[in-house]
Design goal:
There is one protein chain. The protein is of the alpha+beta class. It has one domain: Phosphatase 2c, domain 1 (4-Layer Sandwich), CATH 3.60.40. 36% of the residues lie in helices and 21% in strands. It has 7 helices and 8 strands; from the N terminus they run βααββββααββαααβ. It has a 4-stranded antiparallel sheet, with helices on one face. The protein has a 4-stranded antiparallel sheet with strand order 5-4-7-8. α1 packs across α2 and α3 packs antiparallel against α4. 33% of the residues are buried.
């Protein structure tokens, strides 16, 4: 499971890390059984009650879940975290929720283009991001907009879910977008799937170093900030000998 939190615009809201901790704990108690949408809805409702959250003035988080049963592997995404599933036929399937990419497209293109042109992460960039966020906010957890774990439990019904026969799955790599960009850049999903904890730690550190030393201004890999949170989880199906 990968949750990638974002702090609320409201100064009265709890910090994103507290929100993620509470939501994760609520999910872990539920996720082994039942419909994933219903389990996320219940976990969100509990989180909202425990933290006293109000829609539009709460932290938020992506949600990425892999659940492996005896017969099926289910992968569910809400928000812009990504899973890549390696299959027995040596192909791979990508599971993500890209609805946010369709919001305020012109503003999104503008800030990335400015980075490509070498304008960097100064005040002009921060202004572009604030304008982008203002455009996104009214469309959060709305039909025709995008969906994210925040303070609307019904957002759970908008999970993007794909199901695979377990016999067809070799491995899965689940990432926050801070890692996904680098695995795409390096075409390294399958190699990441073979790494243990030490190798995954080096992968994350190498990505951080590359951002600092090779692309400090986001010219080569345009992104909203120089360093984003980086989370990666690898699952391998032991029943197939992987």
């Amino acid at each position: 499971m990968v949750l990638d939190g974002a702090t609320s615009y409201s100064p009265e809201a709890p910090p994103a890390d507290e929100y993620v901790d509470v939501l994760l704990e609520a999910l872990l108690r539920r996720v082994d059984d039942g419909d994933l949408r219903e389990q996320l809805r219940a976990a969100l409702a509990e989180t909202v009650e425990r933290l006293g959250l109000t829609p539009g003035a709460a932290p938020s988080s992506t949600v990425l879940i892999l659940r492996a049963g005896d017969e099926l592997v289910e992968v569910a995404a809400l928000g812009d975290s990504t899973a890549v599933i390696g299959l027995q036929d040596d192909t791979a399937a990508r599971v993500s929720d890209d609805r946010l990419d369709d919001i305020a497209v012109e503003r999104r293109v503008a800030y990335r283009r400015a980075l490509e042109h070498g304008e960097g992460y100064g005040e002009a960039h921060r202004t572009r991001l604030r304008e982008l966020q203002r455009s996104e906010r009214p469309l959060r957890n709305r039909v025709g907009g995008y969906w994210i774990a925040e303070a609307e439990p019904a957002a759970a019904y908008e999970l993007v879910i794909r199901t695979f026969p377990r016999s067809t799955v070799r491995w899965a790599v689940l990432t926050s977008d801070g890692v996904q960009k680098h695995l795409d850049r390096l075409d390294a999903w399958s190699s990441a799937a073979s790494l243990g904890d030490g190798g995954l730690g080096r992968l994350v550190r190498d990505a951080q170093t590359w951002e600092t030393e090779a692309d400090p201004d986001g010219r080569r890999l345009p992104r909203s900030k120089r360093h984003d949170d980086k989370t990666i989880v690898v699952w391998r199906d032991g029943s197939t000998g992987e």
